[in-house]
């Protein structure tokens, strides 16, 4: 199945599986590190400024070995976070998803601008991101949850998985 029939089938599936409050949402992305290196070298500071905040660029500047794997990992984390939000309206810019080094080295996502607006409308209240690198590839996964359903509610079901309790506090929403 391809083309319009596949699209119709996928849209039907999306309608059949509603975005249930409390059900985890997931975003995943894979980035080719040599491609990031090529883009960074070809387009220089302008490309970096389009995709990374001032704080991100400061962190990347001190990474040993040029930081291309770290850069690719952070781009993957940004894209995974955007996919988690499942934007259906205006474009969410990668520059509006700030990925910083958190306590202990874990990635910390701080949404701003278009990402913050989409986050507020998506119902996602807590999230976590993980990044990995292997060979020429960097990958990231973002998991987020909204409000848990009221257990007394008739719409809550035993089949609806609750969001896991985060190991660490979620990133607080900042004001734009």
User: Main sheet, how many strands, which sense, barrel?
Assistant: 3 strands, antiparallel
Pick out the low-confidence regions: 13-18, 153-161, 165-170
Distance from first to last alpha carbon: 44 Å
Global mean pLDDT: 79
Order of helices and strands: HEHHHEEHEE
Number of strands: 5
CATH architecture of the domain at 32-145: Alpha-Beta Complex
Global Rg = 18 Å
CATH classification, class level of the domain at 32-145? Alpha Beta
Bulk shape: globular
Please list the strands of the largest sheet in the order they lie side by side: 1-5-4
Q: What is the CATH superfamily label of the domain at 32-145?
A: 4'-phosphopantetheinyl transferase domain
Helical content class: 25-40%
> How many helices does DSSP assign?
5
Structural class: alpha+beta
Region (Disordered): 149-176
Pfam family, one: ACPS
EC number: 2.7.8.7
Biased composition (Pro residues): 163-176
Summarize it:
It is built from 5 helices and 5 strands; from the N terminus they run H-E-H-H-H-E-E-H-E-E.
Description:
The chain has 176 residues and is an alpha+beta fold. The protein has a domain at 32-145: 4'-phosphopantetheinyl transferase domain (Ribosomal Protein L22, Chain A). Helices cover 39% and strands 20% of the residues. It contains 5 helices and 5 strands. The strands form 2 sheets. A 3-stranded antiparallel β-sheet has the order 1-5-4. Strands 2-3 form a two-stranded antiparallel sheet. Strand 2 and strand 3 (107-111) form a beta hairpin. The chain is globular and about 40 Å long. The model is unreliable at 13-18, 153-161 and 165-170 (pLDDT under 50). Residues 149-162 have a biased composition (Low complexity). Its EC number is 2.7.8.7. Residues 25-142 form the 4'-phosphopantetheinyl transferase domain.
């Amino acid at each position: 199945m391809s083309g319009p029939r596949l699209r119709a089938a996928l849209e039907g599936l999306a309608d059949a599986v509603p975005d249930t409050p409390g059900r985890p949402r997931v975003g995943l992305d894979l980035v080719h590190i040599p491609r990031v290196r090529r883009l960074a070298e070809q387009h220089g500071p302008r490309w970096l400024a389009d995709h990374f905040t001032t704080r991100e660029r400061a962190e990347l500047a001190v990474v040993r070995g040029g930081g291309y794997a770290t850069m690719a990992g952070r781009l993957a984390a940004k894209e995974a976070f955007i996919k988690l939000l499942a934007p259906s309206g205006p474009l969410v810019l990668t520059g509006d998803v700030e990925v910083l080094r958190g306590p202990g080295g874990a990635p910390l996502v701080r949404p701003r601008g278009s990402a913050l607006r989409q986050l507020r409308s998506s119902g996602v209240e807590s999230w976590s991101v993980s990044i990995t690198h292997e060979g020429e590839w960097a990958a990231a996964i973002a998991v987020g949850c909204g409000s848990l359903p009221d257990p007394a509610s008739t719409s809550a079901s035993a089949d609806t998985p609750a969001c896991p309790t985060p190991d660490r506090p979620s990133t607080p929403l900042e004001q734009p």
